[in-house]
Amino acid sequence: MKKLLTSNEAVAEAVRIAKPDVIAAYPITPQSPIVEKLSEMVESGKLDSKFVRVESEHSAMGVVIGAATAGARVFTATSSHGLAYMYEMCWWAAGSRLPVVMALAARSIGAPWNIHGDHLDLMSMRDLGWIISVAENAQEAFDMTLNAFLLSEDVSIPVAVAIDGFTMSHTAEVVKLRQIDIPPRKQAYRILPGMEVALNAVTFGEARMLARYDLARDLENSADLIEKKYGGLVEEYRLEDADYAVVVTGGLSGDVKDAVDMLRDEGVKIGVMRLRFIRPFPKKAVRNLPPQVLVVDRANTDLRGVLSVEVAACGVDNKNVVAGIGGRYPTVDELYSCLRRFVDGRLSDVEWLI
């Protein structure tokens, strides 16, 4: 079935098909339509789930952690300052090795106050121990969300699915909905009332380090499973004969592809590596890029973009353009100009599109 859906609605449809036992959420722009749609589905009987209206995002993650600990399939969603508020609990979800799925409608974090899209909130998740996928369009928002339930339960690691705020969350595209039979819940352990078990008691030194190591190792190893079953860590666009490569993630990727097509029409051998996942980071793919690399970022760490630093950590020197922070969305022409100066050797090591 094909439907005209925003990315928010596409996420909600995927959650409906996954049939979570518990959904907990607190509204925040631009994520709110996801959980509003889900609450309508629950109220109408289209979705047999327990919808918990909580008093904060911190509580939303707390509820799904509790439900997941008891063996329930769970879902929540947030954005921006909501993610910042639930940040503490996100660490608990990962450290407890719980299958949890969360949608993130990526939005700028103040100050100054801003409700528009960038990746500052998304990039703050990198060290949590979560698998993090980033959709390019509404179709991928649907597919990634549906897959997230299976992937999270395969590896006992929470999974976040990010969509770009407003440019994706509130714009509609044709989405092909696939109805699949979701297998029974898989979970490494369950803790039920009456069990004489403590979860996450105080853990010292070597045991604590081992727990963190095991999570980091399994997160890294999930890359092989993602490549085999879940569409791969990256999409390669016109890279087969490229001398130049652009690395990007999220909804801006389509505009970068348009700019690349313009350069291809001029005879420039340039392509795009779109990061479908930023955790686990696609190190192998990045190391196989052509020698000339430009990274386009929508979040910064100091003066440089976050993804630029991560690509450099793989041993790949790169030029960097920081663009699209706070909803200052670059046009295709602006991106083309940056790429043109990149291939001509006139781009600085780091530039900001302001």
Describe the structure.
- With 354 residues, the protein is an alpha/beta fold.
- It has two domains: 2-229, Rossmann fold (3-Layer(aba) Sandwich); 234-352, Rossmann fold, CATH 3.40.50.
- It has helices at 7-18, 32-44, 57-69, 80-95, 120-123, 138-155, 205-229, 252-265, 283-287, 306-313, 332-343, and strands at residues 2-6, 22-25, 50-53, 74-78, 101-106, 131-134, 159-164, 172-176, 234-237, 244-248, 270-275, 277-279, 292-297, 300-301, 304-305, 319-322, 350-352.
- Helix 6 (138-155) links the parallel strand 6 and strand 7.
- Helix 1 crosses helix 2, helix 3 packs parallel to helix 4 (80-95) and helix 8 (252-265) packs across helix 11.
Helix content: 25-40%
Instruction: Give the mean pLDDT.
Output: 97
SS content category: alpha/beta
CATH superfamily of the largest domain: Thiamin diphosphate (ThDP)-binding fold, Pyr/PP domains
Q: Which topology of the largest domain does CATH recognise? A: Rossmann fold
* Radius of gyration, whole Å: 20 Å
- Written as H for each helix and E for each strand, in order along the chain, the element string is EHEHEHEHEHEHEEHEEHEEHEEEHEHE
Poorly predicted residue ranges: none
What is the total tally of β strands?
A: 17
What is the global morphology? globular
* Broad CATH class of the largest domain: Alpha Beta
Going across the major beta sheet, what is the strand order?
Answer: 3-2-4-5-7-6-12
Number of domains: 2
In the CATH hierarchy, the architecture of the largest domain is: 3-Layer(aba) Sandwich
Portion of residues in beta strands equals 15-25%
Major pleated sheet: 7 strands, mixed
What is the overall number of helices?
11
Alpha-carbon distance between the two ends: 42 Å
InterPro entries: PFOR_II, Pyruvate:ferred/Flavod_OxRd, Pyrv_Fd/Flavodoxin_OxRdtase_N, THDP-binding, Transketo_C/PFOR_II
GO molecular function, one term: oxidoreductase activity
Domain Pyruvate:ferredoxin oxidoreductase core: 242-334
Protein name: Pyruvate ferredoxin oxidoreductase
